[in-house]
């Protein structure tokens, strides 16, 4: 399965063919009763070789290795996804229309989707996932439901459960849900922004907090952010990993298209999220904007940790931007060390291919296999039209 692309086409990846065997070893702590399927439960697994060692193509083990690297530095990581998705009605084979055409953020949109969203929240809570904030989004039929942060491994596990739950509950209501980055070419795209913070080993103290800083971000937070921004052109190969991702990732689309950083700057690749009143220290966090739900969350979060920790170990200067980078001239962006992110999946794979930090963190085998699979997707969709791309990403995500 680790050598199959999104079109179920097997790619030539070493040790992922017909010869050989691994084991799926269940993680008992991950067991959940599934509230939307009768007499069913789910459990997440690690991929393990027959010698009991982790398989080098296991995404969950990649994230675990980055968690250990953070622990070795005295850090624990909290994270969560801020997911957007589209609810749609099937009007014909291969044709979907948004659930409604109401105005953005409107009470009417919330009313129309209320039965589905209520059941989604109930199903998430039944699995130990805490909804935090919900509202209808900009696009027709588009909704955003954020969940509470957890330790970073649970955050990845929860992202898997979240997507499965939304899909299943929508189908129970006779609808389809899609997390595709751009389900319709003329509508807003779906992001899956990652909120994250670094804590002490007991999860008692948020190490991103600094009461004296104008934005309340500590030197450690700036170093971590600098690492993310520096590696962002390669990192989005993991966090925005579909052809469809780059239909969304454009300037002035509030999706972040530049290697920039700023306080509450929603056009920056990484932003400082303003703190919650009365809970300032615990709520300080950074948000990776350039992220969507076509990503494998273990690879995305593992990559995020790897480049952030690199920023801590190898401090770099970081410009703080309080304007939309798209409004600047090329010369102004150059002086601010801001560059355009890759504009296609192929360009993102080229950036990932030469990023030594991410290759070292992933390991040569996983890095090479991932590039092979994703480049095959890029090549496949290059020979088809936009309608073909939209249909396949809508149904698969």
Q: How would you portray this structure in words?
A:
The chain is globular. It is 39% helix and 18% strand. The protein has one domain (22-396): 2-Layer Sandwich (Creatine Kinase, Chain A, domain 2). It has helices spanning 59-72, 107-126, 152-172, 219-239, 245-248, 280-283, 297-313, 330-335, 345-353, 356-362, 364-382, 386-396, and strands spanning 22-26, 32-33, 41-42, 45-49, 76-92, 95-98, 131-136, 142-147, 150-151, 176-178, 192-199, 261-263, 270-273, 285-288. The protein starts with 21 loop residues before the first strand and ends with a helix. It has twelve helices and 14 strands. The protein is an alpha+beta fold and 397 residues long. The mean pLDDT is 94. The strands form three sheets. Strands 5, 6, 7, 8, 9, 10, 11, 12, 13 and 14 form a ten-stranded mixed β-sheet that branches. A two-stranded antiparallel ribbon has the order 1-4.
What's this, in brief?
This protein has 397 residues and is an alpha+beta fold.
SSE topology:
Blueprint: E1 22-26, E2 32-33, E3 41-42, E4 45-49, H1 59-72, E5 76-92, E6 95-98, H2 107-126, E7 131-136, E8 142-147, E9 150-151, H3 152-172, E10 176-178, E11 192-199, H4 219-239, H5 245-248, E12 261-263, E13 270-273, H6 280-283, E14 285-288, H7 297-313, H8 330-335, H9 345-353, H10 356-362, H11 364-382, H12 386-396
Parallel strand pairs: 12-13
Antiparallel strand pairs: 1-4, 2-3, 5-6, 5-8, 5-9, 5-10, 5-11, 7-8, 11-14, 13-14
Helix pairs in contact: 1-7, 2-3, 4-7, 4-9, 7-10, 9-11, 10-11
């Amino acid at each position: 399965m680790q050598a199959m692309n999104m079109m179920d086409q097997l790619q030539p990846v070493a040790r992922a063919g017909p010869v050989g065997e691994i084991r799926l070893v269940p993680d008992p702590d991950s067991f959940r009763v599934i509230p939307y399927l009768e007499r069913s439960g789910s459990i997440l697994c690690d991929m393990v070789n027959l010698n009991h060692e982790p398989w080098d193509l296991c995404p969950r083990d990649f994230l675990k290795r980055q968690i250990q690297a953070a622990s070795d530095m005295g850090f624990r990581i909290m994270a969560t996804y801020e997911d957007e998705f589209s609810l749609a009605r099937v009007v014909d084979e291969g044709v979907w229309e948004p659930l409604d055409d109401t105005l953005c953020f409107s009470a009417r949109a919330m009313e129309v989707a209320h039965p589905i969203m209520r059941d989604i929240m109930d199903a998430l809570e039944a699995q130990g996932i805490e909804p935090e904030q919900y509202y209808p989004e900009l696009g027709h039929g588009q909704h955003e439901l954020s969940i509470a942060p957890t330790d970073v491994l649970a955050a990845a596990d929860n992202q898997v459960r979240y997507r499965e739950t939304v899909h299943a509950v929508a189908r129970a209501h006779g609808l389809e849900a899609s997390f595709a980055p751009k389900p319709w070419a003329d509508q807003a795209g779906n992001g899956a922004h990652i909120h994250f913070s670094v804590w002490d080993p007991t999860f008692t103290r948020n190490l991103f907090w600094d009461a004296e800083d104008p934005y309340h971000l500590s030197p450690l937070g700036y170093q971590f952010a600098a690492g993310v921004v520096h590696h962002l052109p390669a990192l989005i190969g993991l966090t925005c990993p579909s052809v469809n991702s780059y239909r969304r990732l454009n300037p002035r689309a509030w999706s972040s298209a530049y290697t920039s950083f700023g306080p509450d700057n929603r056009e920056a690749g990484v932003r400082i999220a303003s703190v919650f009143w009365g809970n300032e220290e615990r709520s300080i966090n950074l948000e990776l904007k350039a992220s969507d739900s076509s990503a494998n969350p273990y690879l995305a979060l593992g990559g995020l940790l790897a480049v952030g920790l690199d920023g801590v170990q190898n401090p770099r200067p970081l410009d703080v931007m309080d304007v939309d980078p798209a409004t600047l001239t090329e010369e102004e962006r150059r002086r601010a060390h801001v560059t355009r992110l890759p504009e296609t999946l192929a360009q993102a794979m080229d950036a990932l291919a030469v990023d030594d930090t991410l290759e070292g963190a992933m390991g040569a085998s996983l890095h090479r296999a991932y590039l092979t699979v994703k480049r095959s997707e890029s090549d496949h969709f290059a020979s088809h039209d936009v309608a073909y791309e939209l249909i396949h990403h809508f149904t698969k995500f």
